[in-house]
Fold these 2 entries.
Entry 1:
Amino acid sequence: MTSTDRKVNYRPFTFFGGKGGTGKTSCAAAYALALAAQGARTLMVSTDPAHSLADAYGAEIGFEVVKLEENLWGIEIDPEVEAKKYMKGIQEKMLHIVSAAIVDEIKRQIEIAYTSPGAEEAAIFDKFIELMESLGERFDAIVFDTAPTGHTLRLLTLPEILGTWIEHLIEKRKKAMHMMKMAARYDSVLAEKIEEDPILDTLTARRDKFDLARKILTDPERSVFHFVLNAEKLPILETARALELLRNHGIATGGLVVNKILPPEAGPFFEKRREAQEEYLQDIRSRFAGRKILEIPLLDSDIQGREQLIRLSPLFADLDG
Amino acid sequence: MKKDRSALSKIWEFLCLFHHGTFVDKRMAVVRKEAYDINDNLMMLLFGDFLGIPNPISYYMLELLPYMAEDLVPWQRRMQNRKFIIAEKAAQYDFD
């Protein structure tokens, strides 16, 4: 790296999002490399079930955190592995508390919940919180390469929606316990049974986790969401919508990376496309005025492997302003 | 003197039991029934998907299973055998 490099004024949690195929993964990896180069212990996380981080970086990255180079770690979250771990923990706990016969009886129902819609997201989200909690001890910064927009927005708005739901459950349980206590005034057996309530404890612990995630995600000092797009109509519209939605949920949005811009030397064949592109670039500049806009030209080959990412990474110093 | 005391304590014990049987037991049964009903409803919110009602956080609710597993099968049976909600409710009130 050259001496003219500026230090990146990074936040602990940086997300890269955008429409599929715009180059999120390359941008996230290049950004992570920029942070690692200035000495921040950085973790790259891919939350997209269809992972491509390993391909972009050009090294094996699995579902466990691996060290890639000085100051840089990587992980590709595998929802299936995470869900299995979760289930195993529950089953072990269950064997301690209830009889094997009962475990057997409800096994089928466990399977149903385990394959229910949302289970995958929930599993990713759990790992997500676990990684967030590990900040400070092992890492200074975590860079998330997220799945295409829709999936990610659902993931990030999860704590808000589920938090409300779980709050209701806690209320209901408290009410039931209150009634139980009244009924137990003359019933010592019942009174002993409700002395401590693991159900309330579990629900509260879960709510606290959601609260923590929500606090981190909505704190502009700690989290920021950058969008990657191309100078084309659909990515622009999708980005505008996503920015609006994140704002509604109180998640701070940062800069835009306009990727794969056709350079003038592209030749006469692309002349018409370049004209259209110029219009879209104008549109981006006026529509998203006030934001950092980083323009990255289309290169003569795919951005692949560490060497090419390193070439890109100094550009990202400007993204955080 | 001693005899008097034992007779007195017998009367006291009788009074206690009489009070309990006449005023407390029945009322407490009603309260307990109410508490169990609330808990049944809570189970519905937690594990509704076991009965075919979608639950947005069924995955997270699995971690409550170890503590509720014992109740789960009887609960399912109760829910599936419900016939008259009105009769169920009416049973809570004391008509005698």
Entry 2:
Amino acid sequence: MKKAHTHSRRLFLQTSSMLASLAFIPRSVKAFYLETRNFLVASKKTGSLAVSVNKKLYTVEADTRTTLLDLLRENLQLTGTKKGCDHGQCGACTVHIDGKRVLSCLTLAAMVPGKEVTTIEGLSDGEHLHPMQQAFIECDGFQCGYCTPGQIMSAVACVQEGHTHSVTEIKEFMSGNLCRCGAYNGIVEAIQKVAS
Amino acid sequence: MQPFFEATDYFPADTDGRVEAMAKVTGKAKYSAEYQAPGLCYGFFATSTVAAGKIVSIDTTLAKQADGVIDIITHEHKPLVPGLADETKIRESRFGLPVFHTDKIYFKGQPIALIIAETLEEATYAASLITAIYHAETHNIDFELSHPKVALKPDGKERGSLQAWQQAPRMVEAEYTIRNEVHNPMEMHATIAHWTADNKLKLYDKTQGVNNVQRTMARLFGIPNDNVEVMSEFVGGGFGSGLRVWSNTLAATMGAMQVKRPVKLMLSRPQMFMLTGYRPQCWQRVKLGADENGKLLGLYHQGRNSTSMYENFSEGFTRECRLIYTVENLKTESATVPLNLSTPTWMRGPGDCSGDFAIESTVDELSYLLKMDPVELRLKNISNEKDPETGKPWSTNYLSECISRGAERIEWKNRPTGSGQLTDGDWKIGYGMAVGMWGAGRQNASAGIKMQKDGSILVQTAMTDIGTGTGTGIQNVAHDSTGIPKNRIKIELGNSSLPPAPSQGGSTGLSSITGAIAAVCNALKQKLVDYATVVDNAYKGMNIADLLISETGISARSGNAPSISFTVLFDTNHIDTIAVEASAGPGDERQKFSFCSSAAHFCKLRVHTKTGKVKIERMVCTVDAGKVVNSKAAANQISGAAVGGIGMALMEEQNADNALGSLLANDLAGYHFAVNADAPIIEVAFINKPDFNSNPSGAKGIGEVGIIGCAAAIANAIYNATGKRLRDLPITPDKVLMG
């Protein structure tokens, strides 16, 4: 299978330059050319999505390959949700879908219509910060701030899930959110503060 | 266990947090890839699949046919960057990798094409369609096999002689190795490049120094510095990776020039392992001699680190051994080993962090040989009064006090004096400690203040804040200097058009900028006195120390001049704002004194005898950082550095597969640094004694000392627990079991 693919790819590459130099191309050759091109180069597919983010409904024409993370950051300009790895390994992109913490980089945008997405921008109630945001400020639960939105979204979920009985338990249930600055002291302290 | 903050004379009950806290917890803080620009398009790198050789041809046929592709930059199709126009210019530019200006391949993962497309998805997909034919050459990425073939050269001045102590009564000698470590700041390096007019460039760039990026890009493109504006208001971590200008910045700028539209280029996480530096792999050998009473007689430190084929990068890990102890006879040698990898760079505690692991492990080993408490051995040999290298007196150095206080805190007296004595079921428990030092530098820096008619001020500098709390530190110093309430002091950072400042690195940021802040505050006060004199002659010739600034206006502390409201002051002088700018830098004091920050790290841990798992129970860091100008952020930085030290000691490693020329780790599942559960609550304390020779605020830098010594403290604790002296970092469970 792989070999056949290689062959057709090579043939395509060779013929495409020849074709370009010929003014008159028989229709059958042209059809073959297009067919091969479509096989080798996937064309873009888009679809209209109605997505509810922070209780606001957005209707967007999105690439089927678009992740929820890229939809938020690049299409909706909600850049509070961060890209730290794009592989589900760091937690920086954590958002809530229907109240549960989810990695938006492992969620295709096409999966979220009909669901409610909450991002860091939607966590505060107008000018009033969510208690977890306030606690992160008071406990200095960050340094560079890049993992912070994901940490806060996870922290809110961690409290809701009831995983706050001990420092060890908090640390365990917050270990999906990496912080390279190592501001774990303050993160744990902030969660303890809100949980109590 | 709660962290213990003893630097409480500043902000004991501060609940406001950092100046930028609100922006960071609400998601409003904008990092470099998060800005908009008209007609913005996306770039993505395609990278080489061989580790050495030449590109024969790059086939972009398929990629060009993918939807949304605007253009593809390769070494054959590009806007020529004048500063990289030929081999000589490339060499003189000292830019490092001459991306798209050479057909040479130096390492696997080197960018060979930049795909520019309408959307991120289109650019990413099209990059997968790029193929290249290479004339591959033999590569070498095997440090272990290669380094013995490279001759060591003298590194620094030799003290005394090597022969003088070869008959020392107590002698330890051992080799140490550390694998590559990768910075991996949480924000991937990213650039938005926008040519706003002919020869005028605007960059949003992830960097630790906007002026460095500005100068580099201006030089490469042959345009005046003023034509390049670089913004980096929020920086998602650096740890050294943002101290150089990397290929993403240049490529995005070339791309924007080519397609005449702004281009955004964010590296993928796998690309972060290849394109933004790393702490190089190293080998070290330490020989240490002492008399029966533990007085150090001689030290011989050798080491080699890896570098790239196109640049030389020397770690300088033999610096650390010259700083800490009084040793009459000392010799150091080093060498670099070129491999087909990208160039390493400074990573938190560069050089000293690696060197310290070897030195402090050896000192620990000596203590067991002497049957002497490692704390006592260190206290006996630390050079408290003067810099052993230069002979100059330390301006301040409270390392011995750090050790005593840390020992008390962790209850060092409970430590078993021999190894393997304390057990708890399948666990063995141990205590370890080590010290670290770092030269406390200071550079020239500038800052400006703009005062509004309501008496509020805006303090501005080009310096970035990579998470260290620079902005808050500046606010605190400005508040101290002027008396203006903190809520009326705003801070603006990270823009090259603001008063210039050095890059934030080498623990010099706060030390450099606070000097400038003190100077500009004085300039403001002088200006206020001058303007006040126009209103009332009683202010004529007033010493600025007598000037009192309140929320409503100014007055004299001595009562020798009447109060003047800001309204009257501004109106009488017919002005709307008062703007001042000042610079400051190190002076004669640097000739008279040596400057250092120092730290003692203590660790209590347990080792599982059946699985080899190491669990850190307590980590205590006591730090001499001069006066602490921002206690929360300072403690946070030290605890964060200790978390980095845990990673260095136990898990961080980039390995090489020489057969394929590939690095094995290229994501955060394959490269582990400490997660929340890997670290205990780190306990931090500061000596908090000011060093006013260092700068007017009395602060000394702390970015590096928090990590220097951590790895050795942990390795030493593992020895205390198990009797296994592990000299190859990271100490993964397999090494614990097999050791």
